[in-house]
Amino acid sequence: MSKPLLYSPECLTFGIHSYKIDNSNGLEMHILESGESSKTILLLHGFPEIAYSWRKIMPMLANHKYRVIAPDLRGFGLTSGWDSRYDCDLSLFRPLNIIRDILGLLTTLQIDRITMVVGHDYGASIAAYAALIRPDIFQSLSLMSAPFSGPPLLNAKKDNVDIATNLAQLERPRKHYQWYYATHEADGDIQNCTEGIHNFLRAYFHYKSADWKGNKPFQLESWSAEELAKMPTYYIMDLDKNMPETVAPQMPTIEEIAKCEWLPDDELRVYSNTYFKTGFQGGLNHYRCRFNKTFISEQQVFSGCTISVPTCFISGASDWGVYQVPGALETMETEVCSNFLGSHLIKDAGHWVQQERPDEVIRLLLSFLKNVEKQIE
């Protein structure tokens, strides 16, 4: 199989290859790959990250005799074959079809077992469903930043809390970022913002990282407007602002950017150059799927199912993503995962934990893998 280089050499750490492959589900999937082994680790990114977000940990995992694969998921990065319009067939972006994308990729690569699937942010929910549905393929699971509280229940009590309305009626009117990301305007707002895509991403990554000293998360008491409004504005936005307007005031100084070792400007340029070409709608479509009743009903097929494979959770201690859904972390730990091996909150890391503290992430993953391999031998 030919593996043409798609990123320039200076964009990737030594030992990472970049190429595209037909996944038999309508995509030419771009993947990053490092290492050669019969034991494979699969890394699934979130938003607005791409496969490149795993660049710091891939070689280190490969050095421990694993084959490490990180794809650009549907709608992201250099993967092609998806519809970039808002008025696309949204069903192609629903979680079960993303898992079909991944299974097609693995089949083409002739991989029948994944020793560990790791998902960050949006990728965490995809990884969780993959392990829940196909534990025969995905033998262990590591979730990052976004706890998984299980599939939607068939007999869930009707939720009469209209969060969108309640947030808008606060003394300081607010809105939830996921509702905003599902709007028709979101992609254009970001692509056409006055700061430009590169500076938008710089402010966005900074605002959600441990570098922004206001990130001191804590457990919320309930799913209510008053409690959610305690989170920073990148999650609970001001009602009259879009996302670029929300993050622009948090743009780091030139001195702060120069000191940002976990995301220097040349590495951020890989993201901004990519999104300049693709736009953001592909990634935003995954948020839209969260509000589609048909897709939610489809996921209810798995109501009551638990994740049986060994599972761990890793996040930054400064990451509000751990707490943005009150009770989700505890539900994951005690109810959803029947073979849960621990949660870890890493000091001096925010939402982008695998980029901010790759050393500690690697330490935790390798420790987890030792326990996993004892169970699956």
Question: What this model shows, in words?
Answer:
The chain is an alpha/beta fold. It has 16 helices and ten strands. The chain has helices at residues 58-62, 95-108, 122-133, 163-168, 177-181, 186-191, 197-207, 225-228, 243-247, 254-259, 265-278, 281-289, 293-299, 328-336, 353-356, 358-376; strands at 17-22, 28-34, 40-44, 67-71, 116-120, 141-144, 174-176, 236-238, 311-316, 340-346. The strands form two sheets. It has an eight-stranded mixed beta sheet with strand order 1-2-4-3-5-6-9-10, with helices on both faces. Helix 2 (95-108) packs across helix 3 (122-133) and helix 7 packs across helix 11. It is globular and about 55 Å long. 44% of the residues are buried.
Task: Give the helix/strand layout.
Elements lengths: L16 E6 L5 E7 L5 E5 L13 H5 L4 E5 L23 H14 L7 E5 L1 H12 L7 E4 L18 H6 L5 E3 H5 L4 H6 L5 H11 L17 H4 L7 E3 L4 H5 L6 H6 L5 H14 L2 H9 L3 H7 L11 E6 L11 H9 L3 E7 L6 H4 L1 H19 L1
Parallel strand pairs: 3-4, 3-5, 5-6, 6-9, 9-10
Antiparallel strand pairs: 1-2, 2-4, 7-8
Instruction: Count the domains.
Output: 2
Q: Class of the largest domain, according to the CATH hierarchy? A: Alpha Beta
CATH topology of the largest domain: Rossmann fold
Q: pLDDT average, as an integer?
A: 95
Strand element count: 10
- Span from first to last CA? 30 Å
The CATH fourth-level homologous superfamily of the largest domain:
Alpha/Beta hydrolase fold, catalytic domain
Task: Give the overall shape, derived from the CA principal axes.
Answer: globular
Main sheet makeup: 8 strands, mixed
Q: What are the segments in which pLDDT stays under 50 over at least 5 consecutive residues?
A: none
Order of helices and strands: EEEHEHEHEHEHHHHEHHHHHEHEHH
With strands numbered from the N-terminus, the spatial order across the biggest sheet is 1-2-4-3-5-6-9-10
* Structural class based on helices, strands and sheet pairing: alpha/beta
Based on CA atoms alone, the radius of gyration comes out at: 20 Å
Q: What is the count of DSSP helices, taking H or I runs of 4+ residues?
A: 16
- Helix content estimate: 25-40%
Beta content comes to: 5-15%
